[in-house]
Amino acid sequence: MTSLLDTLNTMVVDVTYRCNATCRYCQWGNKSNPKGVHMGLKEVLIPEQTIRALGVQRVVLSGGEPRIHPQLETILQHYGRLVESVIVITNGYGLDEKELHRLLDNGATGVTVSLDSLDPETALITRDTPKQLLEQVISNLERISDLPREFELGINSVASHPTANLKTVERILKFGRSLGVDFVKFQPVFDDGHVSRSAPDLLLTERDVPGLLRVAEAIPSLDSPLTNPPSFWKDIARLISGEALAPESCGLGPRQAIATAGKLSICYWVDSTSFGDSFQSISSEEVEAVRAKFESVKLGCKVGSHCFCTQNLSHEWIAVESVHDQL
């Protein structure tokens, strides 16, 4: 599984900006959000020529909640015939055996379920998930993990102020181990403007540094599935303590692409290195030109919490001081 996560060239495709969950740190659960729409097939069905030029081997369908897209089966079938790995990221609501088989029968090779905490009070604070619904998600995960494992099963977990502590992390990892999941991938909560307006209590600050460092210290001794290394937790602690992380150590580039709102790029945050409209066919030469530009442009980036999201599971950031020491 390490090779799937960290070596397959990956393209993330946002298929919808609607969601049936109301996570407090995410804007897509707000039904009044004018940007909360399903993407059309034109925007999400990346042409085969482009996929070949990018060397995509793994497609991750994201959102919003991909499973509520009315044409999800068509999207899955498109990518299922073009790449070896098609993953659906989901909140897990209603993910029973029947729903799992709907995804797998149409081309998915796995699902990654978003789960930040097993504690009902914390789940309510972070994801606005009622206790009964959390129990349903947990129960569904337990049932589908008992099925013959010819599919990938992972957990995504957002580390925010209520969850960036050893008790929560250890419990998630222990649960993942009991299910035999392929990985548990953590990422820090980041503020796209929505969190600071609607849920500032979830943001990570210097008060969370001791808890993050305790997690980093404990990770090597925990009996866990494949997960982020200790350096991940240290990097977050360094970032929120005001240390600068070197953009030179960004791991995106040749292995990464992301399709958002009808645009295809290497990084959502670096507009100047977009490949163009997601429905365009692009050549290998055009791909290489954009990738070369990204390696130059990223040097001017300021690394933030948002930069952790699509990095490899094993990615390690380098401090600016460390880069200077090497020069």
Index terms:
36% helix, 13 helices, globular, 15% strand, TIM Barrel, 327 residues, single chain, alpha/beta, ten-stranded mixed beta sheet
Description:
With 327 residues, the chain is of the alpha/beta class. It has one domain (2-326): TIM Barrel. Helix content is 36%, strand content 15%. It has 13 helices and ten strands. It has helices spanning 2-6, 41-44, 48-54, 72-80, 97-105, 120-127, 131-145, 166-179, 194-198, 209-218, 230-240, 284-297, 320-326, and strands at 10-14, 58-62, 85-90, 110-114, 152-159, 183-188, 226-227, 256-260, 263-265, 274-277. A ten-stranded mixed sheet has the order 7-6-5-4-3-2-1-8-9-10. Helix 8 (166-179) links the parallel strand 5 (152-159) and strand 6 (183-188). Helix 10 packs antiparallel against helix 11. The longest helix is centred in the middle third of the chain and has 15 residues, at 131-145. The radius of gyration is 19 Å and the shape is globular. The mean pLDDT is 94.
Low-confidence runs (pLDDT<50, min 5 residues)?
none
What CATH calls the topology is TIM Barrel
Percentage of β-strand residues: 5-15%
The class by helix and strand makeup works out as: alpha/beta
**SS summary, helix count:** 13
Q: Can you say what the CATH homologous superfamily is?
A: Aldolase class I
Element order, helices and strands?
A: HEHHEHEHEHHEHEHHEHEEEHH
The largest β sheet comes out as: 10 strands, mixed
Query: What's the overall average pLDDT, rounded?
Result: 94
- CATH architecture field: Alpha-Beta Barrel
Q: Give the end-to-end Cα distance, rounded to a whole number of Å.
A: 35 Å
The portion of residues assigned to helices is 25-40%
The global form is: globular
**Number of DSSP E strands:** 10
From the alpha carbons, calculate the radius of gyration and give it in angstroms.
19 Å
CATH secondary-structure class: Alpha Beta
Q: Tally the structural domains.
A: 1
Order of strands in the sheet with most strands:
7-6-5-4-3-2-1-8-9-10
